[in-house]
């Protein structure tokens, strides 16, 4: 049950998702992997929306090149750990939620621990080796993984739903090499917000998640597309799973 | 035989978003890419490391299926196919 403070704080949002929907958002535990451009935008809007627990992980400290897009940080934060700084900013934004900062890189032994108790993962990572490690673990644990990635004016999002959609390896079988990606803050803002929109939909049951296709954003043309992607039957992660795609979830 | 090619993300910087292509007889992805790289300067360098060697991470989907798991560049085309070309992006 929402208390009086929650009912007042989320009044405009309850008008959209209902009290029951707000309770579901409040009881949803998010893992935000990466506290960079995507992660800081996603964390900000997730905190404002009232996700009850936000666990945020990043190994890095803030530097001045982050400030064109990483909305949780200020000039005075340069040199501080991202996860702790993000947690303080999020708590200042919404003291009704719990924020758990983790300053670490995602590694094999801890990926499962990181996902333990989590309902939805938001991908704010900047490389595919870490994404595959976390997405594979999330798949095995039955936890939705909301993939997002950006470059320049372009972005992509897919809600990967275990046993319902293709896994990340089917969507990106051969990742691009790791490099410093050119980025503009508005694109990380747009894609981070789309990812939180997906998280709200998954938490409340509103709408249809963007699964079974890759949603692609083109900021140069202000245009979005849906690219239908089928799973790879021989995929080592999801190839053996029995699928349960409902007709309404298949989009092209 | 007509196929519709759609390009996404950074490929749009060197080619049109959508291209309708027509072939008089049978055709493959290899033939389609030869025509596209002839038509669009700069596409060859984005897609290939050497003649006939596709960059690993270039995704080419024939009706949603990645050609890496079909017959690669020799994947045959059928009338009405939708071919999507996209380079996965990685930044966060």
Briefly, what is this?
The complex is a heterodimer of chains A (252) and B (92). Chain A has 252 residues and is α/β, with parallel strands linked by helices. Helix content of chain A is 37%, strand content 18%.
Q: How many helical stretches of chain A?
A: 8
Q: In oligomeric terms, what are we looking at? A: heterodimer
Q: How would a textbook summarize the main sheet of chain B?
A: 5 strands, mixed
Tally of distinct domains of chain A: 1
Largest interface, Cβ cutoff 8 Å: A-B, 46 and 25 residues
Helix content of chain B: 10-25%
CATH class of chain A: Alpha Beta
Rg of chain A, Cα atoms, Å:
17 Å
| Shape estimate of chain A | globular
Protein structure class of chain B:
alpha+beta
Residue windows where pLDDT falls under 50 for at least 5 positions of chain B: none
- Examine the coordinates and then state which fold CATH places here, giving the name of the CATH topology of chain A: Rossmann fold
Query: Strands across the major sheet of chain A, in which order?
Result: 3-2-1-4-5-6-7-8
Task: Give a count of the beta strands of chain B, DSSP E runs of length 2 or more.
Answer: 7
Strand order, biggest sheet of chain B? 2-1-7-5-6
What series of H and E elements makes up the topology of chain A?
HHEHEHEHEHEEHHEE
User: How many separate helices of chain B?
Assistant: 2
- What integer is the average pLDDT of chain A? 93
Distance between the termini of chain A: 39 Å
The proportion of strand residues of chain B reads 25-35%
Write the layout of secondary structure elements.
The complex is a heterodimer of chains A (252) and B (92).
Chain A: H1 4-9, H2 11-26, E1 29-33, H3 37-49, E2 53-57, H4 82-93, E3 98-102, H5 108-115, E4 120-123, H6 128-141, E5 145-151, E6 154-160, H7 168-171, H8 185-204, E7 213-218, E8 223-228
Chain B: E1 2-7, E2 18-22, H1 29-39, H2 43-47, E3 48-50, E4 53-54, E5 59-62, E6 65-66, E7 82-86
Parallel strand pairs in B: 1-7
Antiparallel strand pairs in B: 1-2, 3-4, 5-6, 5-7
């Amino acid at each position: 049950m929402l208390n009086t403070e929650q009912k007042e704080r989320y009044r405009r949002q309850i008008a959209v998702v209902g009290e029951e929907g707000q309770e579901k958002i409040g009881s949803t535990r998010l893992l935000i992997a990466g506290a960079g451009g995507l992660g800081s935008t996603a964390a900000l809007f997730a905190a404002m929306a009232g996700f009850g627990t936000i666990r945020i992980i990043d190994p890095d400290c803030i530097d001045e090149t982050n400030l064109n897009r990483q909305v949780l940080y200020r000039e005075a934060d340069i040199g501080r750990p991202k996860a702790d700084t993000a947690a303080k900013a999020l708590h200042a934004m919404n003291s009704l939620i719990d924020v758990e900062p983790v300053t670490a890189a995602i590694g094999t032994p801890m990926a499962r621990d990181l996902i333990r108790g989590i309902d939805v993962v938001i991908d704010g990572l900047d490389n595919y080796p870490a994404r595959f490690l976390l997405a594979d673990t999330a798949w095995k644990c039955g936890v939705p993984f909301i993939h997002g990635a950006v470059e320049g004016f372009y972005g992509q999002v897919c809600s990967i739903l275990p046993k319902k959609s293709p896994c990340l390896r089917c969507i990106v079988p051969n990742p691009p090499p790791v490099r410093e990606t050119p980025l503009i803050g508005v694109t990380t803002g747009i894609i981070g917000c789309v990812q939180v929109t997906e998280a709200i939909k998954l938490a409340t049951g509103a709408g249809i998640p963007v699964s079974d296709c890759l949603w692609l954003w083109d900021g140069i043309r202000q245009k979005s597309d849906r690219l239908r992607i089928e799973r790879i039957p021989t995929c080592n992660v999801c190839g053996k799973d029995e699928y349960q795609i409902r007709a309404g979830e298949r989009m092209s | 035989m007509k196929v519709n090619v759609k390009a996404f993300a950074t490929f749009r910087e060197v080619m049109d978003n959508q291209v309708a292509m027509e072939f008089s007889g049978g055709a493959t992805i290899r033939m389609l890419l030869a025509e596209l790289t002839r038509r669009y300067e700069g596409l060859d360098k984005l897609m290939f490391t050497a003649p006939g060697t596709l960059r690993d991470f270039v995704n080419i989907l024939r009706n949603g299926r990645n050609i890496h798991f079909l017959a690669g560049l020799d994947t045959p085309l059928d009338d009405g196919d939708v071919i999507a070309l996209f380079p996965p992006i990685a930044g966060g």
